[in-house]
Amino acid sequence: MLVAPAQADAKDLTAGGQPGPEDTMDGTVRKDAVEQAEPGSVIPGAGPANRPGERATVRLRDVGPDDPPRYAPEWLELREGADAVARAGDLLDPLRIRLANLPGRSGVVIHDLGCGTGSMGRWLAPRLDGPQHWILHDRDPYLLHFAAVASPRAAADGSRVTVETRRGDVARLTPDALVGASLVTASALLDVLTREEVEALVTACVGAGCPALLTLSVAGRVELTPADPMDEEIADAFNAHQRRDGLLGPDAVTVTCEAFAAHGATVRVHPSAWRLGADEAALTAEWLRGWVGAAVEERPELKERADRYLRDRLEACAAGELSVLVHHSDLLALARPTGGTR
Prior knowledge:
It contains ten helices and nine strands. By secondary structure, it is an alpha/beta fold. Strand 2 (108-113), helix 4 (119-124) and strand 3 form a beta-alpha-beta unit. The longest helix has 18 residues, at 281-298.
């Protein structure tokens, strides 16, 4: 499901590919964008299916007719509140300063990669001043529809916010794709990229001279209370699953920081943990199923014990007796602006 960004006046988003539909959103959604969604292929439940533990926020690559169905927006809606609370607000002041000092700009153009249902825009747009034009990227037109209709229309100071949607694939991101961008954002993206894809993203941001706010990347650490002897074993197996097929998983933030630093960018990292208690029982239960499911997929010999572990954990969750700290990291990279001084 994710995406190569492009400036508002649009070059092809893929290397050698065809441009996807470009739907300018200002309170309306084009009918053909909705029709492409094929609602019957959307999974009706919350969270991942067919691939236990796979994150529902991004689907990166086109793999053919046997690709599992797209994900429903329910999972993204379920996690949106926890995401909003977790994001590192301490990174906003340096971001605001950079955006306020961009040369020759009367507004900002923000590319949101793997936008899902648009939760980043709903969180960030009302926290920034001035006119904003958001370009929402995702592979899935069904999710792009939800993102467009639920996007905010006003900035913190009441300035206008406009929205546009584009389809594409982050694995095909080209260096000129972000020309004209003021900011790149993403949530829960870096850990499902390869080293090569991170380098392509970093190169594009640095080439455009725009900052990048990349939030909610898994850190590979989970704390459950009360503790269980199997917690660490499941966590280790899950982390191994996240690193499958060359994906960075919990190494993503370190690799991304190194890549930005190698290009001369200033990088700040802040923790952004989910803190799940009794009030987040529904999200905790879905997260547990995916977490344990991925661990078992990676190490099938765990299955019998993991089934018991999951049953006990879900019972404790339903009773309001379980709390979970899922560690993430937020990253703000400030590349040298093009056409101005740092």
